[in-house]
Records
---
Amino acid sequence: MFTMLRRRPQEFLAIDAAKDMSLGNQSKELSRSEPIGVSMKFQYGSGDTPLDGYKIKRGVGSGGFGEVYFAESDSGKEVALKRIQKNLEVEVRGVRHCLNLRHPNLVAIYDIKFDKIEQGWIVMEFIDGDSLRDLMDKAPNGMSANDTMQWFAQLAAGVAYLHDQGIVHRDLKPANVFTDGGLIKIGDYGLSKYISASRRGGQTESVGTFHYMAPEIGKGEYGKEIDIYSMGIILYELLTGNVPFDGESSQEIILKHLTADPDLSQVPQPFAYVIQRSLAKNPASRFRDCREMLTALGWGLDASGLAVKVSNAIDVNVPPVMQPVRVAGAANEIPIARPIGSFDATVAGSPKPGNQAAGNADRWKYRNGGSQAAIADNLYREPVARAIHQAVGETQAFFRNLPPGGRAVAIVLAIIFLVMNSAWIAPGMLVLLGTYVCYYFIWYLMGGSNKPIPTQGFGAQPQYARYVPPNRPSPAAQPTAHYKNVQPAAPRPATIPRKVALRNWQSEKRANLKQQGFWTRTHATTRGWALSGLVTAVITVCAGMLTIAKDEGNAMPMVSGIAWAGIMSLGMTWTTLFLTRRWESKPEDSIVFRFVQLTAGVLLGIASYSLSEFLMVPWSDIASTQNYVVINDGNTVWNKSWKGFYDQESMPLLAGHIAFFGGLMWMVRWWRQSDVLRKNRFSVWAIAWSVAMAALVQGLFYFPAPWCFIVAGVTSFSLQMASPWIDYKENTQIA
Amino acid sequence: MSHLARPVSSSAPPIAMAQPKILWIDGVGSYAICDQTEVSIGQAFPGNQVDLAIRGDLSRRAAVIRRHGEDHLIQPLQLVQVNGAEIDRAVVLSDGNVISLGSRIELRYVKPTQLSGSARLELIGHTRWQPLLSAALLMGESCVLGPELNSHVVCPDWTTKVVLFRNGKEWMCRISELANVQIDGKPVRAPFPLIQGQRIRGDEISMTLE
């Protein structure tokens, strides 16, 4: 058994859920030390004739679904006999539905027969060849692009035929795909093999590998999108030798299916694009059907439903669509891969430092092209750099869209702005740069460059209890009208992914988030607190050090201001993190949330007043603007209504602090910046917006000027840095 | 099924043998046990009396492989090439040799270990044996079935190995005690004779000699 385990580490068999246990417990039962899959125990041996007219020669394989034998009919026809051991009626119904399917890429089913003791047998075509699983085991580092395409195109042709017949396979995996003298044959269609962890699920036994299962299976959705998803996984495995989402336990794998993104750094185009789109978490964002998937790879189906190459999208010897990138090469010489289709892949940039550090001179790497954002995503794993890159790109686009006169005005304004403000821009940039270098160092040390965008802090558990009879194709599985519109052999450029509303995705995910337990939420909160504390501390310390270095001997007023700003930013960040973790599973109720924030803001204002009293912050010395000064000498009294907010030395009083923090907490929807389902991991615009809102509040209440902006900006920065995030790939990918 | 009635081992000359003895191994495959001194290879069609029949474009009797001590010699009866070179007389085969029969049939001669005179004959490409075989075993004095890649029959899912060895006219079977082998449902102590029609079953081993 152990050798077999070594050969097939990816496969889990979930057998016997008679004990009523949750999937979480079950995952322990499914550890790799379990004997799995093929046991060499067969009920019948060579020469037995349990079924009239067939003589069994040998056992071929067995699993939870039944035993498979190689047999010969009395007249010498070689067949495979599959004995249905469980759920006879259901299986027979499912297989009967598929009895008359005919396609070269499907294992043919000849008949269903019953023996004398009413056992059901499926009489099938015998495949004298390896399964794709066996082939992959022989190629642990993946196959060549040509071989991959040979297998994958036929697989897609077979699945396309099934889908055209209104049948969803539901269990596509390499172990179910066989090779027969260069021909791919898909087996086990029509059989119901579903994960069923509960005895209430209708099935008492379940078999399946989690590695190829689409995330929505947990919700009981069995559309043909799940086959597209499985094919994406298989394609990835063919190319790399590994499944994209692997883990020690089934739960870990499922979680990755739900949240993680495949690492496509080793995958050439156009495969990377096809995999990425096939593995979209949202079924609606995947390829509509196999034809579309094949088209994106430069293949198609001919009139008889066989896979044919229609364009030279993949030519491994001379790749026209992808230029390999030598990682060890000079940074500026790296060409950008241009994927097929109409993507904009013209953004140049330097490779991320982590990549170079891990550079292997002999290793070809392909740039994961696709869209601008996807390139940025790959170049800059580090979120801040990526966000800045993205913001610059957006600004460029905005600038390009301006009329020529507008551009001139914008340039002139920018120059004037720079000249007028050079006094603070230069040191400001210096501080930012220093902060960023410190931050990058910490981020790098924490292994940030090696791991994909983190998506932890999300513990939804899918329920695999729903059972769907195999012969009832879901509505999505029915052949639809657009199939007929496809001209199989005509080359067609890859279509641009459809944009799926972020809002829909968010509401869907939010429902999942509800399932988080108290401790998961608490963990996410404390983790966020720790991270934001770190970020704020780094910024504060850097700013403090620079100030001390700059104003030697006379730095105390500034340092106390910086300390105040740091602590208040941290207070706001922690408050928001605490609130957001409690709100993120609820639909957004803006006015209520704002009100709660306002209340928190009042408390923060009290804290701020106490803090500035404790630190003895000399506001009048360190504020850049004096317009908050309330003149009480009777002559030039203006803005008298705020009199109670400031004292004679124009120090903000308790009411001033409360007004500012209350106002800021009311104006900015902070929870959105901390939301795990927010659009971008890190948005420069969110910071800009926060600062703008702070300016508005400052305009109302005249709180000491640069400090109120600093608090808002730093809060926004550390909030976004510290909040967990689930990537909505489609959304970021579609430029 | 007259061949079932034949005595277990027949080192007698290959006359009137329509079918070879086949070892059916569950979960692994089917292997022809060729323990004669001379094994003839030819085209599969009804009534053709060869030891190993191949479905394909070749002569009724294309070649004979003769065991000579620890070696195997191939005697061409039609156009036969070994590693691309046409042969006109018997030559000694060595591990990895590719034998071409006619224009389209290719066989690989695999001798996984020099410790045994046994070898494996595999078909390359789309042609197949008749009856369907995974490979033919040209039996020397002993033959190993096990998980290691240098076994004569590689059984990847096994943890133990089975050794077949000649004892006079019959073949004996040696299996570790741990395999809990039973024959036709009764526990048996190894080594035991390999008899046609008996079903050998252990914890992970399951096979029948037909």
---
Amino acid sequence: MESNLLSIRLAGLQLDNPAILASGILGYSAESLYRVVKGGAGAVVSKSIGVEPRVGYANPTVVQAESGLINAMGLPNPGIDVYCEEIKYCKTILKVPLIVSVFGYSADEYASVAKKAVEAGADAVELNVSCPHVKQTGAEIGQSPKLLSEVVEKVKSSVSKPIIVKLSPNVSDITVPAKAAVEAGADALTAVNTLKAMAIDHETTKPILSHVKGGLSGAAIKPVALRCVYDIREELPDVPIIGCGGIMDWRDAVEFMLAGASAIQIGTAIALEDTEVFQSINKGVESYVRKKGYGSVNKIVNLAHHS
Amino acid sequence: MSTSLTTVNSMRTTEIVQVRTESPSVKTFAFLDKPCSKAKPGQFIMLWLPGIDEIPLSVMDVSNGLVSVSVKQVGDATKHMHNLEAGATVGVRGPFGNNFTESRGKVLLISGGTGTAPLLFLAKQLSAKTERISFVEGAKTRNELLFIKELGGICKEKSFITTTDDGTYGLQCMVTEPLANLLDKEQFDMIYTCGPEVMVKKIFELTEQRKLPLEASLERLMRCGIGLCGSCMIGKYRVCRDGPVFNAAQLREVTDELGYSKLGFDGSRIPV
């Protein structure tokens, strides 16, 4: 059966297919997530939610690069108390796992948001410890193994659902925070968030993003992200990895799985193929698995390490 | 990235070559830009005021490669823009979104405020192709009515109706008031509207009661312009990418939000 061929288990979650919506793309409203599910996503990750509402940065918040997008949105979100209503609504209309992305300025904040999200119905939480453009949260936590451990341990002791840690590629060795997260209790890792980047307009001599600095996504970062997944798998043979970064088509998706990812996340590719990109990636992965005679998408995970 | 998206979405700096005052609160700015010069009525651009902000603007006209946008002074960014003179550098990306369909036969256009700008662009395009164009424009007061001369030239006698809240020009009433009568009296093959959402909602109710086709251009807070960030959702639709023009069937799906709520910059629902 076709659905069996693509179905996976990921840190206790059952997914019909391995293509997940990455955090930050759509995801304020339940209806926007519903649309992504209609487009074929096997699970969805919400926008990153904090304790308090945040309006984010002024425009420009997104700028086109040669083969990708640079963004500095500034973690706009309505705060967990308001977002809980959206989570509850999601649970009535989405038929796939809902992963709520969480950020905070301390371990306590991460834990309190995660707890509320899970109580409202989140099937898992993804800790954003890798946002490259907001101070005192995100990457500032993910780049410090000590802070990262504290955050993961605190969240782990507060919620009973799977905890996914989204890692930053902006470190000299990604296996260091990866190990710290897993040792502190992370059930899975997402690799990777955006790469630090910026854009300057030569005519006006001004940085284009209002926040000046941002993070690069899209095809440009794929080889970097692929290496991150491969490196983590070499060091940590067992932790489920969700590959993320520049996956534009089924070939990219397959390559991330060969490098060690059990599932993949899609974001920037929606700009090109719209929300149906999930269907087209799944279709391509499925025919690859069938043509090669693997029988299940799970069989291709890690293959690049054995060849 | 596909070449077309990269081209359309890349930031191009260009000079403002013309500034025209349309009303005490509205100015029109014209600039040269190749991708934007391919814009169709209904589409919008993102205009960057370096170091200040980036704002979505409907295209008001394209002629000989010159792209025009009409800007009402409503906040800091538009205030800054109103101080710009010819020679100032701005950045542009786009055009984004869909466009009004080109209807034949008899068409009716209804605008309020700066919603008149994209409908003037549409009226110019349709004037050669349609049997008859009727236009109803509303504003608060006489000197806020936009493009009266241009619209008077496009519409035949008696098919251009103006309304003002204070009665200083045309009929003293809301723009929606003469509509019921007009819709009952005349046959229209398509009705187009752009303006304040409460007005759009009222027009939608009038056309629905009579089972008439409608295309409405909507406005929401925008950031990315390419359908990724979700700031401009109405129901399941992204105004930047699935819109900004929505037909009656789509509007029926968003009646619980149309005229009532939108997403604020923090993603929470706020009144329109």
